C-alpha cells in the first residue's frame, strides 16, 4: 500500500483561536475532481470571511486528471495529501484530520460545493454552542433553488414509503427518508442527518466521536457519523443563515455509484437492526427498484446490488 505524500505550502496555519473567531480546517477529498475543484477553491476566500485562522487540506485519492496538482497550484495555499490509492471518502477525511490540531473545528467539503460569502463563520459560530456537534448550511442548486438535503434516520417506514410511493411523494407527506418540510428549510432547526456534501464539525465532537468509519468506502459514512454524534447527546443543526451551492447528483448518472450507494444503505441498516428487519429493508429496495427498472441503468444497478448478498457483506 502506498504511503500518503504531503505537499504543504499552506498560507494559513491553524493556531488557537484569536479574537473569538476560533480555528478551522477545511477538508476536501478529491477523486478525478479537476472539473469542479477550482470553483470550490475560488469560493473559499469569501466563504472564510471572518475566520482569522484556517487551513485548507485537499486529500487526493489517486486522481488521474491532475486534481492534486491543480490544488497544489491554487493561491488559497492548500496542503495536499496524495493518498497514492483510491482509499475512499472516509479514509480521506481521516488522513486529513490526523494532521489537524485537536482544537480546530472541521469543515468537510465536497469538491463540487461553492461557499457563499461568510458561510464558514456562520457555521463556526453555531458550533460554539456547547450542545451542538454538527451544523449544516442551506444547500442551493445551481439554479438557486433550495435543495432537499435533510434526511431522516433510515427505517422500515422510510424505505417502504420511498419504494411504494416514490421518494418525492413520500417526502412530501413526511414518510420518506428525504425531509421536505418547507418550514424547516426556511427557518432551520434540529435534524437527524444531512447529505455529507458540507458539514461543520466542532473540535469537541471530533474528540468525542472519533474517526469516520472507513468500511463505508463511499456513501452512508455520513449517516453513520451523524448517528454517533446524536448518540453522544450532541445536536445536529440546519442553519439557513449559512449557504452553499452543491452541484452533486453524480450517482444518478453512474450505475457503479448507484450500486455502491444501495449496498452501503443495506450495510448500514444491518449494523443497527436484526436479520429479519434487514431482510425486509432489502426487500423494500428490491421492490422499489423493480418498479423503476425501466427508468435507467442506475435503477438496474441498484436492483442488482440489493439482490446480491456479496455486495453488502
Describe this protein's structure.
This protein is an alpha/beta fold. The protein is 40% helix and 20% strand. The strands form 2 sheets. Strands 1, 2, 3, 4, 5, 6, 7, 9, 11 and 12 form a 10-stranded mixed sheet that branches. Helix 5 (156-165) runs parallel beside helix 12, helix 11 packs antiparallel against helix 12 (275-291) and helix 12 packs antiparallel against helix 13. The longest helix is centred in the last third of the chain and has 18 residues, at 255-272. The protein starts with a strand and ends in a 6-residue tail after the last helix. Residues 13-21 have low confidence and may be disordered.
Q: What's a concise summary of this model?
A:
The chain is α/β, with parallel strands linked by helices. Helix content is 40%, strand content 20%.
Helix/strand class: alpha/beta
Average pLDDT works out at 92
In total, the number of strands is: 12
Sheet having the most strands = 10 strands, mixed
Terminal CA distance: 23 Å
Task: Based on Cα principal axes, name the global outline.
Answer: globular
- What is the C-alpha radius of gyration, as a whole number of Å? 19 Å
Percent of residues in helical segments?
40-55%
Number of helices: 13
Please indicate the percent range of residues in DSSP E strands (runs of 2 or more): 15-25%
| Low-confidence segments | 13-21
Following the backbone from N to C, one meets helices and strands in this order, namely: EEHEHEHEEHEEHHHEEEHHEHHHH
